[in-house]
Amino acid sequence: MKLFVGLGNPGAKYAGNRHNIGFMALDQIASDHGFSPWKSKFQAQMSEGTLSGEKVILLKPQTFMNNSGQSVGEALRFFKLTPADVVVFHDELDLAPSKCRVKNGGGHAGHNGLRSIHSHIGADYGRVRLGVGHPGHKDAVAGYVLRDFPKADQGWLDDLMRGLSDGAAALATGDSGRFMNAVALRVAPPRSSTGEASKGRKKAQKSEPGVAKTPAKAATPEAPAASDIPAAPEDSRSPMQKLLDKFK
């Protein structure tokens, strides 16, 4: 069994916040993979389902971010799981928007949700770090993560959510490589080699010296050269003969 935890704050007021990207990820997975309806348990919203034969519990703590560990600890003890069975989806300031990284263990880097989880189950759990970018100054962090994603971010955000859902089954079986590939295919799909080659050819044609910019005129028959016209035969008659021939 795996426990996927999404971090965020409860209530409609916070639903679109950058800090709630963990909740968004679990909502996408639940919707795409036919998980059970959300219900209240362990001071959280919980949903159950199966991914690649693995039973997976989705957990969205409702304790507010700073006390997320209380909910995670309760669920861990109830299902008799270890920290290695837990994967936490959370916002990451140190990654550019749309970037995703998988990490096992390590520090909390000042993230209050992770700090709380550390205090309840230790540090040896998995994380899916979801880049939201940094506001540029530490004093602006609180206001930044508690603001909604702007409309300009909706495109990459939707791609990222779909990528996380595509790769969820691989993550449940511990295959982080396949999980990351699934995310990358959504966020940065490979370009068509045929299309690129065609663009390259067109560009080369435009820049090639000596290529006419206007359509070529239709070919016309070539006039014969003067040297190709046969010369008139030489007149060998005498002047008298020429005069007599005029009166014939």
Biggest sheet, strands in spatial order? 2-3-4-1-5-7-6
- Count of beta strands: 7
| Computed structural class | alpha/beta
**What do the pLDDT scores average to?**
86
Can you give the helix content as a percent range? 25-40%
N-to-C span: 127 Å
Offer a quick outline of the entry.
This protein is of the alpha/beta class and 248 residues long. The protein contains 8 helices and 7 strands. It has helices at 21-32, 68-78, 112-121, 141-145, 154-172, 176-187, 193-207, 239-246; strands spanning 2-6, 39-41, 44-51, 54-61, 86-92, 100-104, 126-131.
Explain the overall architecture.
- With 248 residues, this protein is an alpha/beta fold.
- It is built from eight helices and seven strands.
- The chain has helices spanning 21-32, 68-78, 112-121, 141-145, 154-172, 176-187, 193-207, 239-246, and strands at residues 2-6, 39-41, 44-51, 54-61, 86-92, 100-104, 126-131.
- Strands 2-3-4-1-5-7-6 form a seven-stranded mixed beta sheet, sandwiched between helices.
- Strand 3 and strand 4 (54-61) form a beta hairpin.
- It starts with a strand and ends with a helix.
